[in-house]
């Protein structure tokens, strides 16, 4: 079993380039079952272990948390800079984060409330509206991880991380100078999430409208229209306290009916003569 425990871990090897390989099964044809490859057969053998099904209304939240954050992987991480009404600046990482939609460009992040209060990030975004989402790169993951410290309200994480403030175009909250990809956002909607059994608010789901995208030119790919993953060296969040690298990938064409439709119809009529 993969483990991050023990003192004999090999040293970190920084991502120097992003490698593209073939996809797992490049010869796959539409309709072909998983068991037709040795890897697919071995995968389906796993079913012999049986299933565990959790009823989330009956389980301990701690267990649901551990299972969900290790099963929904890898997650992108938003490193959020926000500011309170009285000018206190805040930095914290959030991996319940993603792009929600494109038009308009909206991102989501969720801040879990503790038993006493909402997190500073949620409180700040609700009151001052503007915030920045800074994508974390490998060379400064330790700094970003340290910003998750449970500092009391009013204590800024900026000086304790060693990261540098850079001005945003529109919002008051600074962006992180070390981040090569930054979203300058404005609160679109804050949704208070309630536990249906207790009716208690447990989290705030922030929907942020992306107003500006800051891209460091050296991470922009050769065509100018995409970010190069090998240059960005973004980190992924796994379960527990674990992170992952983004250093290898493969391409799969998006199927179009115009290319496959005739063959698909043919195979359907052959199997239903
Ligand atoms: C990589 C990483 C991801 C995290 N993701 C979340 C998250 O999605 N939601 C959340 O409520 N807390 C998350 N945390 C914990 C917060 O960063 C932590 O509670 C932080 O102190 C919140 O800061 P704030 O109160 O200043 O907003 C995460 C921590 C780390 C290290």
Automatic annotation (TrEMBL):
Domain Flavin reductase like: 70-225
Gene3D superfamilies per the UniProt record, alphabetical: Electron Transport, Fmn-binding Protein, Chain A (2.30.110.10)
InterPro entries from the UniProt entry: Flavin_Rdtase-like_dom, Split_barrel_FMN-bd
Presence of the UniProt keyword GTP-binding in the record: no
Obligatory cofactor(s): FMN
GO molecular function, one term: FMN binding
Keywords: Flavoprotein, FMN
Key word Flavoprotein present: yes
Pfam families reported in the protein's UniProt record: Flavin_Reduct (PF01613)
Family statement drawn from the similarity comment of this UniProt entry: Belongs to the flavoredoxin family.
Protein name: Flavin reductase like domain-containing protein
Protein's organism: Pholiota conissans
């Amino acid at each position: 079993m993969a483990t991050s425990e023990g003192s004999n871990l090999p040293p970190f090897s920084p991502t120097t380039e992003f490698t593209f390989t073939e996809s797992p099964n490049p010869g796959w044809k539409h309709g072909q079952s998983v068991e037709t490859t040795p890897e697919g057969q071995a995968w389906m053998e796993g079913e012999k272990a049986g299933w565990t099904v959790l009823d989330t209304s009956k389980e301990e939240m701690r267990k649901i948390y551990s299972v969900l954050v290790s099963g929904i992987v890898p997650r992108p991480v938003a490193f959020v800079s926000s500011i309170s009404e009285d000018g206190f600046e805040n930095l914290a990482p959030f991996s319940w984060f993603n792009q929600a939609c494109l038009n308009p460009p909206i991102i989501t992040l969720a801040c879990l409330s503790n038993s006493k209060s909402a997190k500073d990030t949620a409180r700040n975004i609700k009151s001052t509206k503007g915030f920045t989402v800074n994508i974390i790169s490998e060379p400064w993951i330790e700094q970003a991880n340290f910003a998750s410290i449970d500092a009391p309200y009013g204590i800024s994480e900026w000086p304790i991380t060693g990261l540098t403030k850079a001005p945003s175009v529109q919002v008051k909250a600074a962006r992180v100078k070390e981040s090569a990809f930054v979203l300058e956002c404005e609160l679109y909607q804050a949704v208070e999430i309630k536990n249906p059994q207790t009716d208690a608010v447990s989290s705030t789901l922030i929907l942020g409208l992306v107003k500006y995208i800051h891209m460091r030119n050296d991470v922009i790919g050769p065509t100018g229209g995409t970010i190069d993953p090998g240059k960005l060296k973004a980190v992924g969040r796994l379960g527990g306290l674990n992170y992952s690298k983004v250093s290898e990938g493969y391409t799969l064409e998006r199927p179009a009916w115009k290319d496959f439709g005739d063959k698909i119809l043919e195979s359907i009529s052959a199997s239903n003569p």
